[in-house]
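Ticket #4471: structure output looks truncated?

Reporter: J.K.
Steps to reproduce: submitted the chain below (326 residues) through the standard prediction queue, then opened the result file.
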Amino acid sequence: MKNLRWIALAALIVLLLLGGCKPDKQPVVLADPPKPLAAAVEPTATPAPTNTPMLAGGSYISHYTSGQTLLIFDVGIRTLYDGWAIGRAAYEDNDHILVTSDAGHTWRDVTPPQPLGADLLRADGFFLDADTAFVVYSAADQFNLLDQYVVWRTRDRGQSWQISAPLELTGLEEFFVPDKITFADPQTGWVSVGIGAGMSHNFTSLYRTEDGGNTWVRVLDPLNGEGLQTCEKTGLLFADSNSGWAGLNCHGLYPGVTFATTTDGGSTWQFVELPAPADKPKLFDEGEAGNCYTHSLHRFSYEKGMVGVTCEQLDLTEPADYYIYI
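Returned output as attached by the reporter:
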């Protein structure tokens, strides 16, 4: 029995390595011949709260028709057959939210009624289960700001969508790019937002909800000198309402490989430095590998989890090295 448990653990690690240690949002073209979309079903949106005037009239992202060929950028399979994806028909198009009921052979467009803007729109999503998803949109051109930023949520596979109160932007009006959204449970979630970079810093603001995404409170504010300012965030993951991890990519600016942890729901963060691999004890030293960074966070429980590490030459002339830390 002990051998069987070790075999099962090894198989799980291999699957996570194959599926979890790739950079975010690598485009994958549907199989050849391309699989058509299932017939689209128009959602019926719940009336917007009075504090969201952006929904009063205007044009919205329209659904794709049956037979459209798609580029899939983000996939979350939640049962053997049911799953979600973010994709679009072409690079020069808005992101759409898609669901599948046949393990990805066909997809149905359930995009929320996100208003169109002057620029193309990109989506970040979190797919809690087969029925529940949370989505936030931003402009493809990061220097263009939307009038408001809201979090869409559905609990019926996209047949209807509800909209949150707008994220509060005071002091962040010049640069605001939502880049990660995650939930620990149906009520408690976080949205991280890039608010600018410079002088070897990459500034992040963090919003938290405790009512299922209806309202959001800013719990991390770099304008006040709080943490997560140093490096690009490659991932965000919470085991419960308090304990979270953030993957970090410092782009070779600093030696060592770290990720960040919080035990108070994201208000404060500490940094954990990983040891170098035993067969390459100097790999993480300054100038040795070029750039090593953490990503592909996964937690089995409050205590146990996995972090992916990639080491690559800054000029990308040599193949990258990949590691999993447990």
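Triage note (M.O.): checked the attachment and the full token line is present. The longest helix spans residues 2-20.
Status: closed, working as intended.
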